[in-house]
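Deliverable D5.2: sample structural annotation.
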Amino acid sequence: MRPESTNGTGGGGGLAVPMAWLCAEYIADELLRAGGLVEPGSLEYQAGRRTLALTVYLGDGTDPATGPGGQERLDEWLTRTEYGHPWEEWVRERLAARRERDGDEDEGLALARETWRRLEGTHLLATDLGALSAGPAATGFTVDESEAVWLPSWRLGLPLGHLALRLF
């Protein structure tokens, strides 16, 4: 069945959003819903969904995490989202490599770049878990949750996405 609207794509019957990006968003949404960590529709949920979708899309893993090769994809996403992984640099490198390979005409890449812009540009007030690595090891791993700072939304979405992947 053809979609009723192609959002101005000339009526050629094509989707306005590329299938690879739709799959990445769907996978991210399903993982977060299954984890039940935050309320769907919340700012935290949106940050986690965008972060996971970008991870899935840029990792070329838009096939579900079930079936043949599913465990390898899940392991890659877990590695990319784990604490200490240079996720921000990885995203920048992958976006640049995709742009060089596919040019500016790739609609999926345009959506990925817009998602990255939103993740960087939207700041959320949250406990700074990054402060754990700043303190001396002798003090232990205590975090004062009343101390909140403004963080780019991907800094909140990344651990949320990782936890959702762990619960899957």
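Annotation notes: The longest strand covers residues 123-127. The helical segments are 19-35, 43-58, 70-81, 87-102, 107-121, 153-167.
The annotation will be released with the project's public dataset once the embargo ends.
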